[in-house]
Amino acid sequence: MRILKYLFLLLLLSLVALSIFVATQKGNFTVERSKIINSPKSSVFNYVNDFKNWGEWNSLATEDSLINITYSKNTIGKGSSCTWEGKQGNGDLQTINIKENDSIFQIMNFNGNSADVSMSFKDTLGKTRVSWKAKGKMGFLFKVLTAFNGGAEKIFGSVFEKSLNNLDKKLDYEINTYSVKVNGLVNNPETFYLAQTFTSEFSKVSKNSGIVISKITTFCKKNNITISGKPFVIYHTYDITNELTKMSVCIPIKEPIFLVEGSDILSEKLQPFQAVKTTLAGDYSHTKKALDKTQEYLKTNYLNADTVFSHIEIYIIGKNDINNPSKWITEIYYPIRQKVVSKPIVTPTPTNEEITPKPKVEKEIPSEF
After folding, report:
1. Using CA of residue 167, residue 170, residue 175, residue 176, what is the dihedral sign?
2. Closest to 237 measured CA to CA, from 299, 189, 309, 296
3. 193 and 168 in one domain?
4. Considering the entire predicted model, what is its pTM?
5. Which of 56, 129, 201, 348 is the most exposed place for a label (fewest CB within 10 A)?
6. Do 205 and 276 lie in a common domain?
7. How far is Cα 107 from Cα 6, in angstroms, rounded to an integer?
8. Which pLDDT tens digit goes with each residue over 208-237?
9. For the purposes of burial, counting CB atoms within 10 Å of the CB of 53, is it exposed (0-12), middle (13-18) or buried (19 or more)?
10. Are 135 and 30 a contacting pair, CB within 8 Å?
11. Does an H or E element contain 62, and which?
12. Residue 139 domain-assigned?
C-alpha cells in the first residue's frame, strides 16, 4: 500500500513538473518557409486567393481523405474564409486583406492556436517565389504536443513545406496544360443579356468577372429571370500598353427585361455579327496566346477586325464549374467587317422604240401671203 502511495506521489510530481515545464515554454512562435513555384505570378496568386482550391494543395486537407471543409459564400479575396474538421484537428482561416497580385493576409485558428498568416508572391523570370509566414501564440495543449515533437517550428514548418510542394506540383500541371485552336469564321446570333460595365486592370479581370457573374446570377434567381447560356465578357476596349480594359460582364437571358432607372445592372441586346472563333482549353493566363493566334489568323486571311468592340470571351467551362484550370474551356470571338460585294454596273437594255430611229419631223415653213 505504501508503494502505491509513493508511485502515485511520483506520478503527481511528474505531472506538476511537466506542467511547470510546459507553462514556462514560450507560447509565441514564428514560422516561415518559401519555395519557387514553376508558374506565373498572377496564376499562382489567383489560385491561392480562392479558398475553393485550398483543399487541393494544403497538406492538412490532402493528407486527410475524411476532412470536412466549409467555405464562405464568397471564396475569393478579402472577407472570404473556410473552416475544417479533420483527423489532425479543427480550424478556420479568414482572409482579412490582399494586395492584388502581390500578397495575402489572413488570420488562422487551429486547435486552440491563433496566428497571423501572410503569403507573398514575387516574380522570378516567369516563375514565382512564394513566401509563407505565420506568427502566433500556442495554447497549453499544443505546447505539450510541441514539447515532444520538436516545437512549433518543426510542426508548422512541415505543414508549410508539404503544402508548397503540393502547390508547385498542382499548378505545374494545371496551369501549364493548355491548347489553342482557331476554329475560323462563324456567325453569332442575336443575344439578350444582363450586364455590368466597368474599367479594370488586366490582372483583376478574372477576380472582377467572378464577382459580377455571381452577382448577376443571384439577381436572376431572385427575380425568376431565365438564364439562356454561359456567362461571357465583352471587351469594349483592350489597351495592351497600359493593361487596362473597359469591359461588360454578361449573363445571357431568354428575353429582354425592363430595369429601374439607375440600376448598375443593364439589360442589353447584342446584334448578330460575324467573327473569327478561337477556343482556349486551359488556364486564363494563356489568353494572350489565344488572342495573338487569332490576330495572326486575321492577318493571314486578309480579314479586318470590326471596331464595334475588341472581342468577346464565353466561359463554356470555368472556375465556377470546376476547380481544375486545365479543364476550363473559353471561346473567343473577334468581330470582323463583312466584305462588301460590289455590284456590277448593268447597262439597261434599250427597248425597240429606242432602237428604231424616229422619223425626223421638219418644221413647216409658213408660206408668204
Report:
1. positive
2. 309
3. no
4. 0.74
5. 348
6. yes
7. 47
8. 998 899 999 999 999 999 999 999 999 999
9. buried
10. yes
11. helix 59-62
12. yes
Q: Verify that 114 and 242 share a domain, yes or no.
A: no
Residue 118 lies in a domain: yes
Q: How far apart are CA 133 and CA 160, in angstroms?
A: 9
Cell of residue 79, nine digits: 472577407
CB 192 within 8 A of CB 256: yes
| Domain housing 192 | 180-335
Provide DSSP, 178-193.
-EEEEEEEEEEPPEEE
**Could you tell me if residue 325 is inside a domain?**
yes
Give per-residue pLDDT as tens, 267-281: 999 999 999 999 999
What SS3 state is found at 80? coil
Q: Over the stretch 345-357, which tens digit does the pLDDT of each residue have?
A: 555 555 554 444 5
Please indicate, yes or no, if residue 123 is contained in any of the structural domains: yes
Q: What is the bridge-based pairing of β-strands 28-37 and 127-137?
A: antiparallel
- Give the CATH number of the domain where residue 215 resides: 3.20.80.10
Residues 187 and 322 grouped into a single domain: yes
DSSP code per residue over 20-53: HHHHHS--EEEEEEEEEESS-HHHHHHHHTBGGG
What residues contact 288, with CB distance under 8 A and at least 6 apart? none
**Residue 170 grid cell:** 498542382
Residues 206, 152 share a domain: no
**Domain match, 147 and 209 both:** no
Residues paired with 275 in a beta bridge: 186, 335
User: How far apart are the C-alpha atoms of 294 and 279, rounded to whole Å?
Assistant: 10
